[in-house]
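ARCHIVE CARD
Drawer: 12
Card no.: 0347
Subject: one protein chain, sequence and derived structure
Cross-reference: see card 0346
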Amino acid sequence: MSSTRMSRRHFLQSGALAAGGVLLAACQPQVVERTVQSTVEVEVPVEVEVEVEREVAVTATPVRDVSNNPNAATGVPYEIKSAINDGEPINLTFWEYHPPRADYETKWCQEYQAIYPNVSIEMTQIPWADYYTKLITNIPAGQGPTFYKMHMNYLTPFCEGGLMDPMPPHVADQAHLTAHWAGFEAGLFNCPGSDDRYFVPMGAQLPVLYINRTLWEEAGLTDADIPTSWDQLHEVAKALTKTDGAGRIVQAGFQPDSTRFAWSGLYQQGRYLFTGDRQHVQLNNDEGYNVFEFLRKVFIDDPVTDPEFPGIGEAFPSGQSAMVMSESFFVSTIRQNAPDLDWMAVLMPTFSGELPPAVGRMHFAVDVTINSQLSEKEREVAWDFWHFIYANDERLVHTISLGQGMLPAYDKLLEHPAVKADQHAAALPPGMEYAIPIGELPDLWTMTVQSMVLDPILLTGASIEESMQTAEAEINNLLGQKESWNILERNYKHDDLMIPNQP
């Protein structure tokens, strides 16, 4: 695994960018080179570390017949066919950016190919920094993958841009998906103004506090010390912070993923990120000031970490950081990079220490998306493979929830014994009730808050008030350049607990 040290410019982001080329891992144990030219640049937030080069080879195992399986994800049961594509050879491709998920997906491909040997699916890993740029460039040019992993915050531009194939009605019971998939109406996963379903999430992510148990116990801390408020978090973090003879921090007591902490902090105080018309941001206010003042305290005023400290993707697995805040996907980084690390996960502390109006965002992280530029034969097999993936409850539980740190988007799987028995998964359901489905979180919010608020106040000592004012004006300007954003904050079930805003 290759990771880089955080630069002063980007120390607040969740993991280090990886350099290097495209990794190709075939579903059958072979590596095939593929060169893609990109001419469009997009800004993409960093979520995870990415391996530069790795070969994946998993032995194919037969999959059980899930037809009429009462434990299947009801509403999308899959029936094994006598043949697919009339038995004729067909080659498909699958793009992924996150190595741990590629391991699981390689197995999905192999299981499907064990049933239909005429189908070949090539798994390709794209570095995260290039992932959406390559999709945006290659799909219109007819060089995109058959399937690709998709984040919900890209739903609107991708379906409006004609890059996604809408789900055919026969693939799954639409009424069932509406009733049970994440518990929200179908419009949550449609493009604005469309009745077609474009996005079926595999799991939901929530903010999580990760604690190194070994460092925790070495500091004399117990379960009674697990923080429930921001102030308690800071005090505990000070007990976990270590410095060298020159006063430099060598063990961080707490590291936040600061842009995620920012929106979680606003939600916890009852403040939506956007006004009801989705055309104005809500940043320059008392709640925003509280968030950035806390971040300045933990980084600068009474520090428990350092701007020059390695990113959380390196620091926590290596034991350099005692506590980190991220979203629940981070567990896959821990399990991959530090399988023997003794750690625990707890719900993120709140501003007040009590149950707030909201704990943070509910992020429907990924689904398997079908390229809109396929031939009819490719489209038929592609949706059959999609159906095969989603039809099996064990696949969704063990590869998505337990393997990738998400809660199942299919609500009935929240009661699955394996989900309830997993310590990490067990820490998430209390927050599920008070998590806001943000939907499309524009990159402009994340990037602008980073560059115009966090960097100035933490790197140059700029005024919090002035920085928030400048960032809010810039975000409002950018919001006004698009007629509609698929921002879904008002779908929140506890809207009555939030601060009313106009309009």
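Annotation on reverse: DSSP finds 17 helices and 15 strands in the chain. The longest strand covers residues 90-96.
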